[in-house]
Amino acid sequence: MANGNQSIVVACDGSEHSSHAAKMAAEFAKATSQPLKLLAVFPGTKLERLIVSGIPQSDIDEQASEYGRKAFDAAKQAVSGIVEPAEEVLLKGDPAKEIVEYLDEHPGSHMFLGRRGDSTLRSLTLGSVSEKVVRHSHRPVTVVSE
């Protein structure tokens, strides 16, 4: 049923919204017999602050790994008993940009994202990660909101 290049990918950040998206993605992965991949992006704003403050690269890598571990652990808890994630991918940079680039490089991917529910004004002026991904991706994207 599943093509070897197809997969379900969920963006994880450790929030309740991403855990809800992870659970829905896991249900979809199970129903379609596709592997579930967890994707976390260590935000570029944090990365820039750490670089500017002169923190050694090894400490930056450690903080990024810790961010990923927390995000992946929350997602794995949400999908527990549904499917076992096939892969964990940790990227660094602007979350929307990194997610879109990941999707471009993995054409069989279907992305699930949690929507944080920012205020209308904030979404209109800054744009949310989910809105940016939907606008710029050429792959299927499901935005999960509660």
The CATH architecture can be named as 3-Layer(aba) Sandwich
Count of structural domains: 1
The total of beta strands comes to 5
The CATH superfamily is known as: HUPs
- Global geometry: globular
Order of helices and strands: EHEHHEHEHHE
- Cα(first) to Cα(last) distance is 30 Å
The number of helical runs is 6
Q: Low-confidence runs (pLDDT<50, min 5 residues)?
A: 122-126
Main pleated sheet: 5 strands, parallel
The CATH topology is Rossmann fold
Strand content: 15-25%
- Which class best fits the helix and strand makeup? alpha/beta
How large is the radius of gyration? Answer: 15 Å
Query: Biggest sheet: strands side by side, in what order?
Result: 3-2-1-4-5
If you average the pLDDT, what whole number results?
Answer: 88
| Fraction of residues in helix | 40-55%
CATH class equals: Alpha Beta
Short account of what is shown:
This protein has 146 residues and is an alpha/beta fold.
Structural notes for this entry:
51% of the residues lie in helices and 21% in strands. The protein has six helices and five strands, in the order βαβααβαβααβ. The protein is of the alpha/beta class. The chain is globular, with a radius of gyration of 15 Å. It has one domain: HUPs (Rossmann fold), CATH 3.40.50.620.
Q: Key terms for this structure?
A:
single chain, 146 residues, alpha/beta, Rossmann fold, five-stranded parallel beta sheet, 6 helices, 5 strands, UspA
